[in-house]
Design brief:
alpha/beta; binds NADPH dihydro-nicotinamide-adenine-dinucleotide phosphate; Rossmann fold; 5-stranded mixed β-sheet; binds ligand LZUJQKHR; oxidoreductase; 242 residues; Dihydrodipicolinate Reductase, domain 2
Amino acid sequence: MARIGIIGSAGRMGQALADAIAAAGETLSGGIDKGGDPLALAQASDVLVDFSSPHALEANLDAAVAAGVPIVVGTTGLEERHHFLCDDAALRTAVLQTGNTSLGVTLLAHLVREAAQRLGADWDIEIVETHHRMKVDAPSGTALLLGHAAAEGRGIDLAANSARGRDGITGARTAGEIGFASLRGGTVAGDHTVHFLADNERLSLSHLAENRAIFARGAVRAAQWLIGKDAGRYTMPQVLDL
Ligand SMILES: NC(=O)C1=CN([C@@H]2O[C@H](COP(=O)(O)OP(=O)(O)OC[C@H]3O[C@@H](n4cnc5c(N)ncnc54)[C@H](OP(=O)(O)O)[C@@H]3O)[C@@H](O)[C@H]2O)C=CC1
Ligand SMILES: O=C(O)C1=N[C@H](C(=O)O)C[C@H](O)C1
């Protein structure tokens, strides 16, 4: 049985993850929240799963590296420097960072990449996400993941071609940009739609999460898969063989 340690254990995802670990027949080695000791947790675990805060990421990666255990990073709201930290840690241990651990979104990203490639640049791309009222980051990590997939399909750089929130006299849409819009309210676990809009026709690809169990199940699969892997960065499509 794998010993899985949870960072952010008292949170919404931490609790869902504890249920998923039990359902998978694995062992919960412990959990920490703000002020907890990630190194002690890492030393007691075969793998760490982090659903906490970007502020915690550096210490969590350092703990994983120091203890020589792999780490699944599900925390969102990451900036470029956080991705560099993941790259750096991945030189010394196995790191899987993703904005969404569900099977459905992992497949959706594949479909979005394919659609963006096949439909061509005259199809505008807009990504809309809806989440519960407690979510603190926008756009969601999943929206950004889908944006990256669309940009890859198009052969463009997402950072240089993003419209993240429009307000006021914005002028007409810039050709080639990928737009993001975020809705917050209620208890929505996570809805994402990628709209492809052309002259006189539209194609929309959606994923609707009905609860957090789907993310927790995917995170446990990722954690199980990561144990024993060489140092490096890994992805959900590798875990799910998609
Ligand atoms: N990749 C994916 O598939 C998914 C990712 N997420 C992401 O996971 C993260 C957590 O989401 P959610 O569970 O809803 O959020 P919550 O706010 O419910 O939980 C966050 C938890 O992290 C803890 N925490 C905060 N700071 C630290 C720290 N420095 N060290 C250790 N623990 C800390 C909090 O503890 P305290 O209360 O003491 O501050 C809290 O228990 C978010 O970034 C979210 O977007 C969510 C769902 C799926
Ligand atoms: O905060 C959440 O709840 C979620 N966060 C992730 C994200 O930012 O995409 C994944 C999921 O949508 C739920």
